[in-house]
Amino acid sequence: MNNPERYSHKWTLDYPELGTGPVSTEAFTSEAYFERERDAVFRRCWLNVGRVEDIPEPGDYITKDLAVCNASIIVVRGNDGALRAFHNVCRHRATKLAWDEQGSCQTFKCKNHGWSYGIDGKLKFVPDEGRFYDVDKDANGLIAVHVDDWNGFIFINLMPEPAQSLREYLGEIGDRLDDYPFAEMSENYSHRCVLNANWKTGMYAFNEVYHLSFVHPKTGGTLITGKENHFGRPVWVELGERHGTLSTYNNPDHKPSAVEGLSYKYGPSFAEGAGACPGVNPSDEELWSLDINICFPNFFVDVFSGSYFTYNFWPLSHRTTLWEYRNYYRPAENAAHRFANELSRVWMREFLIEDIKAIEQVQKGLETAVVNQIHLSDSEICIRHHLKTVDDHVDRMMSTTQGN
């Protein structure tokens, strides 16, 4: 097993369009660049806002405030079972309509003046309607937003007409993960925090595992790094038009603690390997732990055999980000299974707290402006790819704007 040459492939050379040189720090520090990202990326791409388990019954809804788009969105399950999405804005005086993050109702009633809308978005009631002059109720329902779901993940798109359907947009990631058993893993734990960092600074802590031995020496340094792959080199990489996937190494010499070993018997673990789980380990690697799937622009779906987790990085400004994390499991079947799920939850929380500190220290260094370029190794190829994809979106928007 001890053969470091197995992990000597240089993935960046397979994608010459990415280049190999240093990259500018402007994308992490410039407020002007961030303003261009708002229009070029977030207002044009499909954005994940939840899962169908969040709104299982007619009338169930979630709201999502998207500061980067200056928008708030309602996604609701209709009485016909269909998903619908609307701008969370009353047509009377533009008051935010639904104030809770999640709920269930048959009518959305404005708390300011009582205008009421059905869950189909139609304007149903206007208090003292006779005192208005030109209000056409049929023309003043909630403003619809494009919504669709794939494998239980709910996405919205703010364009008047998206350039691609959601399925077309997901491309190779959608193809690969079509058969992964997401629906079986309905139990989830979540954490969120505001990072003092640019959204890409936050994301890029999870586009590679080069940092693992240094940031997480006690919590996870030997799980997916080891003697023959000490620096967490990817075991497989695929980069598409906008999305990217890398597979990580599984260290056969990892020695779990007594508590970890007990947990591994009954619940999910990176050390488990691929097993018979569909949609994972696309290169059929013998020593595989998980696949990191980076769905452009700001969503991760990281899958392994018995569990998966997601990240969403929502820009609040050019130097602050709302980071949301969810870890999904199969519902516990007994006390031992519950113990395993709970241990995994606590372990991941501690793991991520270490990442938070590192991410914010990176942003502090960038903000000094002492350096205006950073260097990326072959193991950081997904960072290089994502940066170029953002740049391409911004450049296309700028050229279109100038052309008009």
Strand content: 25-35%
Could you tell me the number of beta strands? 19
Number of helices: 8
**Class inferred from helices and paired strands:** alpha+beta
Q: Percent range for helical residues? A: 25-40%
Described by the principal axes of the CA atoms, the overall outline is globular
The ordered string of helix (H) and strand (E) elements is: EHHEEEEEEEEEEHEHHEEHEEEEHEH
> Biggest sheet: strands, sense, closure?
7 strands, antiparallel
Mean pLDDT: 93
How far apart are the first and last residues' alpha carbons, in Å?
A: 59 Å
Radius of gyration: 23 Å
Low-confidence stretches: none
Strand numbers in spatial order across the main sheet: 2-11-10-5-4-3-6
List the helices and strands and how they pair.
Layout: E1 23-24, H1 26-29, H2 31-42, E2 47-51, E3 60-66, E4 71-77, E5 83-87, E6 102-104, E7 107-109, E8 116-118, E9 123-125, E10 144-150, E11 153-157, H3 166-177, E12 187-195, H4 199-203, H5 212-215, E13 236-239, E14 244-249, H6 258-266, E15 288-295, E16 299-303, E17 307-317, E18 320-329, H7 335-367, E19 373-374, H8 381-403
Antiparallel strand pairs: 1-19, 2-11, 3-4, 3-6, 4-5, 5-10, 7-8, 8-9, 10-11, 12-18, 13-14, 14-15, 15-16, 16-17, 17-18
Helix pairs in contact: 2-8, 6-7
